[in-house]
Every structure is written in C-alpha cells, then in structure tokens.
UniProtKB/TrEMBL annotation:
Coiled-coil parts of chain: none
Organism: Actinoplanes aureus
Annotated keywords: Membrane, Transmembrane, Transmembrane helix
One cellular component term from this protein's GO annotations in UniProt: plasma membrane
Name of the protein in its database record: MFS transporter
Length: 428
C-alpha cells in the first residue's frame, strides 16, 4: 500500500526552507560591519543605519506582503522576495558608496526578507492546516532561529577567510537556489490541487481575490482592526515582546555581560545557546497552542519572561556559572514562544484578515525592539550600567501578561465587517 503524503506537508517544507534562508540572509550584515569599515572607511554609524533600515522594513513589509499574497498568490510573492534578496546581496559586489549599501542591504534585502517574515507563516498555516496548525506555526517560526544558526557561523568564517564579497555572493546564490523549490512545491491554496486543508473535512472553493490594491487592503485591515480592543491588546503585548527580546537581550546582552567582566566570546556563545533553546521552545509552544487557550499561554509566557529579566541583574558575572546557564535555558525556551498563540488569536479575532492583521501586530514587535535598543543604550550611557534597563523590561513583560489575560473579556465575538471576521464582543 502506497503512503500518500498530504500536499500541505510539502508546502510546509518549502516554506520552512525559504524561512531558514530569509532569517540567515537578514542577519548577514552583522558579519560585514567590520570588514566594510576597514575597506571603505565608512563609520559604524553609517553601516548600522543600513542595518536599521533593514530591520524597519523587515517589520513594516509584513502586512503589505500578506495583502500581496491574497492578491497575487503566495508562490509569486515568495519567489519575488527571494529574487529581491539575491539582487540586493549580489549588487553589493560592485558598490563603492555608502548609499549603495543602504539601497542593497537596507532596502532590497529588507523588503525581501520582510516578505518572508511571520506574516508569511500566518498565511501558510491559515490556508493549509486545520489540524496541527499551532504546531506547524511553531516549527515554521523556529526556522528563523535555525537560519541564524546555519548561516551566521558559515558566513563569519567565509568572511574571515575569503572576504566579505564571498559572503555576499554566497547569500545571492543561496537565495536563487531556493526559487526553483518554491516554484515546484509551494501552492497558493489547497483548491489548486483539488484537496482540502490538512485536517479539514469540508471542501473549500478557491477564494476570490480581494478587490482593490494590496496596499489599500493592508491599510483597510489595519483601519478595521484598530477599531477593536483586541488589536491593541495584541499589538501592545507583541511590542513588549520585541522590546524584551531582539531590542534588549539580542542587542545588549553581550555588552552588559562584558560590563561584568565576561569575555565577549563567552557572552556570544551564551546568546547562541538562546537560539538553540529557542527552536525547542517555539515548537513546544506550537504544540501547546493546539491544546491550551492562547490567552493563557501568552499570559504565562510574558509573566515568566518578566520574572527572569528581574532576576538577571543579580546573576550577571564574569563567568558562565550554573545560575546563568539556567537563565539561558529558561529564557531561550521563551524567546519567540509567543508567536504561535499570537498568530492563532489574530486568526480567531479577525478571521480571513488574520494574516494581514498579524503583519501589523508584527510591525509593532519591531517598533518595540527599536525603541528598547535605543532606550537601553541611553540607560547605560547615563547610569553606567544596564540594571534599570533589565528591571524596566521585566516590569513591561509582566504588563504584557496582564494585557494578554485581558483578552478574555472579549472572547465572545461577532463579525464586524466583511473580510475582517470576528472582533467585537457579543453584547449580553
């Protein structure tokens, strides 16, 4: 008897490969900063500005990319995104002006990787999975951490041995190599193959393409969602999520540990361990999202993260002692465990527009990260240590826990607008 694999799993594999690549491509500029400074004499501030543009576009592109996927299809948008990444990386081989770096790594790679961010994950899982939707969301989200672990060490070694151009060329070629896989295996909707979503017993017709431009649809989804209490609670919590992960720990953990006498290589190794545990934690969170109310999960994740950050100042030291390793284990498991339940809640509250709305919620995540990265640096400059930055982040994470639990007040829902789905509590 021949075992037939449901096409949804093949779509998920193709998406996972694309997500691994996008994460690695987006993080590549961090290994190029010093070589570009040495060759061209550009200041670290100038080079970092290109990275900042990349990060900003990575967040802001997500809702518009989700709207483009509704309009033109997942496969076309994903292929175009990879071609943008390849072009952005490849064109750097001929650059000799700092504005060209801004255009290539900042704009082109930022737009490309932003189109393959968490809004892409929400679109894939929303269309192709009913059963195990949370688990698949967790696995695909973990692709981001996997991409960093795969690409960054390889590109750092390649840059050291062969120069930054070899690293840029490698990224350009790798992005191109993923395009045929996307064309071959990624499909826009189960109806394209005459099947139902995995776990669904109801045959679905091909959804009608939304009227109007993609940008207008993305902004309309934001306008309608912003009228609801649920959106602001989700966006507020996810902004704090970004502030307490990428913005604070991802940016400032190494210099903070160095302030306490820890070698930078040791601190970097501990941060890499966070990425390893992040994979396990995100997949486990996806599994739990299929079984436990997402509001409870978010409330628990944020509360535990807040408590861990409040403890961190007392355990930072010159060595990686057992207490620090326990923090790394615990914090790593909780790093992006918030993503699967947040995606699920966006779908529950906003129906078919859930992926686009999640794109806007994800943009708030990046905004929170940017604010925290700057604020923590100012705290260190003014007070001479990061202590109050850690305490402030811990308090914010506990606030995010409260915001998440407040979603229970709006659990009974009714439709509010065509295409938006569920958002407003039913009056008793």
């Amino acid at each position: 008897m021949k075992l037939r694999i449901h096409p949804a799993w093949l779509v998920a594999v193709a998406a996972f490969v694309a997500l691994i690549g996008a994460a690695g491509f987006r993080a590549t500029p961090s290994v190029l900063i010093q070589p570009l400074n040495e060759e061209f004499g550009w200041s670290l501030g100038t080079i970092s500005a290109a990275v900042s543009v990349n990060l900003l576009l990575y967040g802001l592109t997500a809702p518009f990319a989700a709207a483009l996927m509704d309009k033109f299809g997942i496969r076309r948008v994903a292929m175009a995104a990879l071609l943008l990444v390849s072009a952005g990386s490849g064109l750097t081989l001929w650059m000799d002006q700092s504005w060209q770096l801004m255009l290539c790594w900042g704009v082109l790679v930022g737009l490309g990787t932003g189109s393959l961010a968490l809004g892409f994950v929400a679109t894939i899982t929303g269309r192709w999975f009913v059963r195990h939707r949370g688990l698949v969301t967790g696995v695909l989200t973990a692709g981001g951490a996997t991409g960093n672990l795969i690409f960054l060490p390889v590109l750092a070694r390649l840059t050291e041995s062969s120069g930054w151009r070899a690293a840029s060329l490698t990224v350009a070629v790798a992005a191109l190599l993923v395009v045929p896989l996307i064309w071959w295996r990624l499909r826009d909707h189960p109806a394209d193959l005459g099947v139902t979503a995995y776990g669904s017993t109801v045959a679905e017709e091909m959804p009608a393409k939304p009227a109007g431009g993609a940008a207008r649809n993305a902004l309309r989804a934001l306008r309608d969602a912003a009228r609801t209490r649920a959106f602001w609670l989700l966006a507020g919590g996810f902004a704090i999520c970004g502030a307490t992960t990428n913005g604070l720990v991802g940016t400032h953990f190494i210099p903070a540990a160095h302030d306490h006498g820890m070698a930078q290589t040791t601190a970097a190794g501990l941060l890499a361990l966070v990425g390893i545990f992040d994979i396990a934690g995100t997949i486990a969170s996806g599994w739990l999202t299929d079984r436990v109310d997402s509001r409870i999960l978010l409330g628990g994740y944020y509360a535990l993260r807040g408590l861990s950050l409040l403890v961190l100042p007392s355990i930072l030291a010159a060595t990686a002692h057992p207490g620090m390793l326990v923090f790394i284990l615990f914090y790593g498991l909780d790093w992006v465990a918030t993503v699967p339940p947040t995606v699920t809640l966006c779908r529950e509250y906003f129906g078919a527009a859930g992926p686009i709305v999640f794109g806007w919620v994800f943009a708030s995540h990046q905004f929170g990260a940017a604010v925290a990265a700057t604020s923590a640096g100012l705290v260190r400059d003014q007070l001479g240590s990061y202590t109050w930055a850690w305490y402030g982040a811990g308090a914010l994470a506990i606030l995010a826990s409260i915001l998440s639990l407040m979603l229970f007040a709006g659990k009974r829902l009714k439709p509010v607008a065509p295409g938006i789905g569920l958002a407003v509590p039913v009056s008793r």
